[in-house]
């Protein structure tokens, strides 16, 4: 890897301390549920889907595990390491689904340790991003990435693992710039084995293949990276039901507008198929997921590296990115779920679980339409402006 103009130590230390603060003092139950399920790997359970189908009615937490097997193995592997760090109390806390779990004296330790891999992935993304910009933009990019509120919220307050597939999409982007298309597609396939969305990015790499044989190699690389971790589970009906009938595909593809926009991006990308920088394509696709779906907060992490990269290169887009972030947070806080707003503070004040969601306390006004319109307008501007600029400079 080339020499990096990495941020000054003081900048990194400040950003890490800020992340540790958010990781320690904020909590969403999804963190607990994911690692509760992943904890069964330590007990020798390989097929979590069949196990839950047979046993979940007798377990203290009866929901299904709706992520691919590689996610189970990745989180389960870290759960084993985290148990060695924290001791047996972690498993007892993960199994406690009463309100008492918020009063556990080691709560802050548990939620911090469980989030530590996300901190590593976060910093690795920055390291990769810095190889993709001119040295004169590295300080600006470092500031944008290290202190943006979206990653602090989605990664460290909510504690979702989407930063892991996001890391692989950035690595894939870097490989494409080096014309290593088959490895780039394979990395996307592995990312899709954690969460499915990187498959949407594969066609843009295929377009860069100059021959049918290379197209085939790229396509097979992506499919192999995606399917190999899942092959042993395809004979399991509970796996099919849990993973392929989850809300992700439904939320994205229930509206034709996303498909139309995605086809438009494919057309733009095919026109510029000799351009190896796929930042506009990767950003446009992942941004469109937020623009045209009822998204989860953590889905913003998918597009964040590419938006930050674009902002660092073109500061004039900062105002539109700010509008998009404003609309994003407003729409999130309008969701009637207290754990997306005040409930995140429950490690500090457990009684906040009794407070109604923020959305329930607002007057009945069309806030959703207002902020959805702002999200669409700013998103359209960012994507189309970026494609236009890329076409003019390719």
Structure characterization notes:
By secondary structure, this protein is mostly helical. It has one domain. The protein contains 19 helices and no strands. It is globular. The chain starts with 8 loop residues before the first helix and ends with a helix.
Major sheet characteristics: none
Order of helices and strands: HHHHHHHHHHHHHHHHHHH
State the secondary-structure class: mainly alpha
By DSSP, the count of extended strands is 0
Task: Count helical runs.
Answer: 19
The multimeric state of the shown protein is: single chain
User: How would you sum up the global shape?
Assistant: globular
How helical, in percent, are the residues? 55-70%
End-to-end Cα distance, whole Å, is 25 Å
- Percentage beta strand: under 5%
Chain-averaged pLDDT = 93
Radius of gyration: 21 Å
Subcellular location: Cell membrane
InterPro entries: GT87
Organism: Candidatus Amesbacteria bacterium GW2011_GWA1_48_9
GO cellular component, one term: plasma membrane
């Amino acid at each position: 890897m080339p020499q990096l103009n990495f941020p000054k130590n003081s900048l990194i230390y400040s950003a890490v301390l800020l992340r540790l603060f958010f990781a320690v003092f904020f909590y969403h139950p999804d963190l607990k549920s994911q690692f509760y399920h992943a904890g069964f790997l330590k007990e020798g359970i390989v097929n979590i889907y069949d196990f839950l189908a047979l046993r979940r009615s007798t377990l203290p937490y009866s929901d299904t595990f709706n992520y691919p097997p590689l996610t189970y193995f990745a989180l389960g592997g870290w759960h084993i390491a985290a148990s060695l760090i924290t001791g047996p109390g972690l498993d007892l806390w993960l199994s406690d689904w009463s309100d008492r779990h918020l009063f556990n004296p080691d709560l802050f330790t548990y939620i911090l340790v469980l989030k530590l891999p996300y901190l590593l992935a976060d910093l690795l993304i920055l390291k990769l991003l810095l190889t993709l910009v001119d040295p004169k933009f590295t300080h600006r990019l470092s500031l944008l990435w290290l202190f943006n509120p979206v990653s602090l919220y989605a990664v460290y307050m909510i504690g979702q693992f989407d930063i892991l597939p996001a890391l692989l999409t950035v690595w894939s982007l870097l490989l494409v710039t080096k014309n290593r298309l088959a490895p780039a597609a394979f990395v996307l396939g592995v990312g899709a084995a954690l969460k499915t969305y990187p498959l949407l990015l594969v066609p843009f790499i295929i377009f860069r293949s100059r021959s049918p044989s290379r197209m085939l190699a790229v396509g097979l690389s992506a499919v192999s990276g995606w399917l190999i971790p899942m092959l042993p589970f395809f004979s399991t009906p509970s796996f099919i039901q849990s993973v392929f009938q989850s809300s992700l595909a439904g939320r994205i593809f229930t509206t034709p507008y996303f498909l139309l926009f995605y086809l438009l991006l494919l057309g733009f990308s095919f026109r510029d198929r000799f351009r190896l920088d796929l930042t506009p394509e990767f950003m446009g696709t992942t941004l469109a997921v937020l623009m045209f779906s009822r998204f989860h907060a953590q889905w913003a992490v998918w597009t964040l590296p590419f938006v930050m990269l674009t902002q660092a290169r073109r500061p004039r887009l900062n105002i539109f990115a700010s509008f998009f972030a404003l609309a994003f947070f407003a729409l999130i806080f309008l969701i009637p779920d207290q754990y997306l707003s005040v409930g995140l503070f429950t490690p500090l004040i457990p009684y906040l679980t009794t407070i109604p969601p923020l959305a329930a306390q607002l007057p009945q006004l069309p806030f959703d339409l207002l902020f959805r319109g702002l999200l669409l307008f700013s998103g359209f501007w960012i994507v189309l402006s970026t494609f236009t600029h890329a076409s003019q400079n390719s």
